[in-house]
């Protein structure tokens, strides 16, 4: 079974631009979560989608948005990029939101904002 | 609020040494607890988990016991190897009537094992 895939693996953008990151979950998984990892703030939750609906959202500005398609693939978008948005963006999928259910992580997309 | 605190790194050990990485949590309700590991250039891999008090999670020689009385979930391994060098994250998920919220992570502890 293929794991969680994220594309692209690396991105370089300049301030003010926007970016779209993609995540393909493990086949059969309907829940997709996004996390931002930075040296200063560590791992922080962005949002979670389940069956095309945003179920949960972290404390990030409205410049960060996402969506999920009918095949469970998910995208996140960051508009008007700032230097502080440079981070590793991780996507995780799980089969259901059951208690203690494991989330499987992809390798991440490394975003650098210049 | 809900949070996870784990010992600051980096931790440097010699091969075959005993490892302990401390983790304590603050949570409303009854969380599930996890240890994730991140190797250089990779995403997170689940190392072990425990879903209720007194459960012991174990995998690849690593162990952690869910201690509700001390709100702790310390990671231990009796004999580390060079291949265990990585960053280790303690995390929790709050459970709501059978479903769960998002993962809340500690800051991570970098482990380096020298031959």
Q: Would you summarize the structure shown here?
A:
The complex is a heterodimer of chains A (114) and B (115). With 114 residues, chain A is an all-beta fold.
**SS strand fraction of chain A:** over 45%
* Helicity of chain A, as a percent range: under 10%
- DSSP summary: helix tally of chain A: 0
Number of strands of chain B: 12
Largest interface summary: A-B, 24 and 25 residues
Q: Given the C-alpha coordinates, what overall shape of chain A results?
A: globular
Pick out the low-confidence regions of chain A: none
Order of helices and strands of chain B: EEEEEEEEEEEE
Largest sheet of chain A: 7 strands, mixed
Summarize the structure in words.
Chain A is built from no helices and 11 strands. Chain A starts with a strand and ends with a strand. In chain A, the strands form 2 sheets. In chain A, strands 2, 4, 5, 6, 9, 10 and 11 form a 7-stranded mixed sheet that branches. The mean pLDDT of chain A is 93. Chain A is mainly β and 114 residues long. In chain B, 39% of the residues are buried. The mean pLDDT of chain B is 92. Chains A and B meet through strand 5 and strand 10 of A and strand 6, strand 10 and strand 11 of B.
